[in-house]
Amino acid sequence: MTGIQQLVASKLRDIPDFPQPGVVFRDFTPLLADGAALGALVRDTAARYAGRVDVVVGIEARGFILAAAVAYELGLGMVPVRKAGKLPGKTYRQSYALEYGTAEIEVHTDAFPPGQRVLVLDDVLATGGTAEAACSLIERAGASVVAVEVVLELAFLEGRRRLGDRTVNALLTV
Predict the structure, then answer these.
(1) Is residue 99 predicted with pLDDT exceeding 70?
(2) Contact between 81 and 137 (Cβ < 8 Å)
(3) Which residues of 94-103 are buried (b: 16+ CB within 10 A; e: fewer)?
(4) Cis link prior to 19 (omega < 30° from 0)?
(5) CB atoms within 10 A of CB 139
(6) In a 3-state reduction of DSSP, which class is residue 51?
(7) How far apart are CA 90 and CA 59, in angstroms?
(8) Helix (H) or strand (E) holding 10
(9) Catalytic residues
(10) Before 61, cis peptide (omega within 30)?
(11) pLDDT digits (tens, 9 = 90+) for 130-163
C-alpha cells in the first residue's frame, strides 16, 4: 500500500446499518476534517489528470467536495451532477439502481461544450449505478469521459463492470 493509500485508509470509518439495515456505509468525513490528508488526496488525484481533462464532474453529494477541490487544484471548472429536481435549467435525467434502492440524477443540457474531456469524481464505487448514470449523462451532453476516479471501490459489488471500457481508478479497493 502506498503512503497516500495508507493515509486515506486511516481516515475512513465504517458505519453499520446506514442508510438501512444490512448496509455498511464507508464514511470519509474524518478524511475531509483533516486538512493535511484532504490536501494530499486532492494533490494526488490532480496529478493523475493534469493536462488530460478540461473539466471535473462531481456526483452529488460527496463527489461535489472532491471535484471542487481537484478542479481548483487543476485550475479548471467543476460541473455538478445532481439529484433530480435540484438544477434550475434544462437538464438531461437518468434513472439508476443503487445497492439499496433507485434514484435519478441530472446535469444541465448545456454543461459541456462538444468533445470536452471530463473527469468524474465520487467517494465510493459500489454497484456502479450512479457512476454509470453520470457517465451516460455526460456523454449524452456531448462530452467525453476520460476517467472515473473514486476514493474507495467496493469490489465485491462489481460496480466496475457497469462502466464498460471506461477508465476507472480507485485509490483503495476492498
Answers:
(1) no
(2) yes
(3) bebeeeeeee
(4) yes
(5) 15
(6) coil
(7) 18
(8) helix 3-10
(9) 62, 99
(10) yes
(11) 999 999 999 999 999 999 999 999 999 999 999 9
